[in-house]
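Figure 2 data, in text form.
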Amino acid sequence: MKSTENLLNQVQENLDLFCQKQRADFEAISSDLVPVVDYTHSLLQGGKRFRALFCYWAWRSSLTDANYHQTETEVNDSEEAIAGIAASLEMFHAAALVHDDLLDQSDTRRGAPAIHKRFETLHTDKQWAGSPERFGVAGSVLVGDLMLGWSSEIFGNALLHSPTREIESACRDEFSLMRVEVMAGQYLDVLEENAAPSRPVTEGVGRAEKVILYKTAKYSIEAPLRIGAAFAGADQSTLGMFSQFGIPLGIAFQLRDDILGVFGDPSVTGKPAGDDLREGKRTVLIALTKESLAERSPSMATSFEELLTSRDLDAQQIAFMQKLIKESGALEKTERMIVELADRSLESLEAATLEATAKAALKALALKVINRDA
């Protein structure tokens, strides 16, 4: 069985080899297509690889409860396949990042220019006609779409080594559901950024929580867990347990991300300080702030909303909004929510009957998700 390090190396190797092949195929069409693959390949370097790891360890932890029996050779084949499945999840995640950065108008990703900014720079450097910004939008939409297709291709190729047809079908169902849910969550997120000012403040937290559930919690943690377990032939009870473990952990994951998006250290997060405030993100943290301010100081709540919708904040305005978030009690409430969700998630895992080594690895992963600073 692979160690975590070996798995991550295999996932990266799979992605590297796939991109190298695509580069050769694209270059055969036109050298102008090379940046499309190179920008993609660059985005696939590094990252926390949480999705790959949750998928792998859910598979490992479920093997003892599998509804089929494999020889040692078959297990080795399945291990190679699960690395391919994990790679497909990382490709899918990268595709979501490309589109998310464009929709949020976020200029950086992991300390480097976002994909749409890279296309803008390419346009400017080549002194082409037209708008660099429009070219950047077009390029990133196409790259994101291409990566979604590539993710499905990698996933499908890995499933060719499924132990049974039933397992292949179960994995495809989980993957398809993940794709639908994350797109639904993405739309709700965009909608909220535009519609929130016209909706009751008291509804903000509930709407933000629904966005978290579908945009992040399900595809970031629940889906990788369920896909990995499904590839091991897990029954519905085991899959349900992984949902009970994964969903509260996924929500806690995003709540931590929301805090980092406002208070994170740019040298660690790779994004400017207060980036979520500049983008006007309607997170639980923001909804709690608005709810508290509306009760205590309506005029201050109005000022906060005006700044949030301006999309053009200087460092002093960012600092002012950070101060209001802290003073409103929203930051403290969000931290408490993270602790409560983490406790619920870990209790579900503790109660589960899973292979001991894999169970310990899942617990360690969960703690990393909760306590991360980037």
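Caption note: The beta strands are 108-109, 112-113.
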